[in-house]
From TrEMBL:
UniProt name for this protein: Phosphatidylinositol specific phospholipase C X domain containing 1
PROSITE patterns registered for this protein in UniProt: PIPLC_X_DOMAIN (PS50007)
CDD domains with a match to the protein in the record: PI-PLCXD1c
InterPro entries linked to this entry: PI-PLC_domain, PLC-like_Pdiesterase_TIM-brl, PLCXD1/2/3
GO biological process, one term: lipid metabolic process
GO MF annotation, one: phosphoric diester hydrolase activity
Species of provenance: Otus sunia
Domain of life: Eukaryota
Length: 331
């Protein structure tokens, strides 16, 4: 069964500066009205195989992992890993929305912060922020959205510590939230980073932080059900500013038991042909049923990033945002 599911992992070098190559007619359009590729659970390519289960997982998962780790831990790793490319490789591939799930390890006396998806990563948040900065310095016209979320185990002191690091590392590259984030404006001011922060109290105190970006999470195991969910959300109307349409499928206990030799990667690769059709039917823009950020798993598979970037060619076209009702029917 393995053969048909194998999809090459590739990085399209032509996408590393795709924003700087957009036509001038798009330079004055806010980024929340463009189509931007994103990665869901960006940092899971470096989950720590020796890590304890994170603090916010269920007591049952923690108990089973403690009693039979040789069985449970490999299962956790198979279903927690959503990306294979490093953060630099994702940026090189054209991803411009990074989904950072940040956590502090329980009983860790240090101030070190990690990324988390059931288990913790091997790298710290600080190291990855520096890595993003190094990439931005060699790509001065590219803009990246960092969505800081979850904050498992973070105290107020740790929030202050994280925000101080964000400011120290990115400095004037941070775009304040009172700026309308068009490419032309951001280039003129040297802004390259938009940080959304899922903690309202901190956002109110720091003008460099943007409010949490809504994420349309279907929580579906079937591709058709996920597409139906996304179409239903579109009919309800897009948010005014940034938002994410997540094309990531989500396993549950029943699905894992029915697919004992499965993995999130296999689940994802099977869904790509239908999701590719759905993506190509979308339109970016401010209208009710338009999209903005589309985030997926294993972004190096298939042509996901290219397909999202190419949606920007539809802006200002005669059929702009006329995809009503097309999503589920043709698929």
């Amino acid at each position: 069964m393995e053969g048909p599911l194998q999809t090459s992992i590739h990085v399209c070098r032509e996408n590393d500066q795709w924003m700087s190559r957009l036509p001038e007619k798009l330079w004055d359009i806010p980024l929340y009205n463009l189509a931007l590729p994103g990665s869901h659970d960006t940092m899971t390519y470096c989950l720590d195989e020796t890590s304890a289960v994170s603090g916010n997982e269920s007591k049952l998962v923690k108990f089973l992992n403690k009693c039979i780790p040789c069985i449970v831990h490999p299962i956790i790793m198979k279903w927690s890993t959503t990306q294979e490319l490093t953060v630099t490789e994702q940026l090189e591939a054209g991803v411009r929305y990074l989904d950072f799930r940040i956590a502090h390890k329980a009983n860790d006396p240090s101030m070190n912060l990690y990324f988390v998806h059931m288990v913790y990563t091997t790298v710290t948040v600080q190291d990855i922020l520096w890595e993003v900065l190094r990439w931005l310095e060699t790509h001065p016209q590219e803009v990246v959205i960092l969505a800081c979320r979850n904050f498992d185990g973070l105290t107020r002191k740790l929030h202050c510590h994280l925000i101080a690091y964000i400011k120290e590392i990115f400095q004037c590259k941070l775009c304040p939230r009172n700026v309308v984030p068009t490419l032309r404006t951001m280039w003129q001011h040297g802004h390259q980073v938009i940080v959304s922060y899922e903690e309202d109290v901190e956002v109110e105190e720091h003008c460099e932080l943007w409010p949490a970006i809504p994420y349309w999470w279907g929580n579906k195991t079937a591709t058709r059900a996920l597409i139906q969910y996304l179409e239903r959300m579109k009919r309800m109307g897009r948010p005014e500013k940034f938002f994410v349409a997540g094309i990531n499928l989500t396993e549950n206990l029943r699905y894992i038991l029915v697919h004992p030799f499965g993995s999130l990667k296999k689940m994802t690769l099977q869904s790509l042909p239908c999701l590719k059709i759905w993506i190509k039917q979308q339109y970016p823009g401010p209208k009710k049923e338009c999209i903005n950020i589309i985030a997926g798993d294993f972004i190096g598979s298939d042509d996901f990033v290219n397909d999202v970037i190419e949606l920007n060619t539809k802006i200002n076209s005669p059929l702009h945002c006329q995809s009503k009702g097309a999503g589920t029917k043709s698929i």
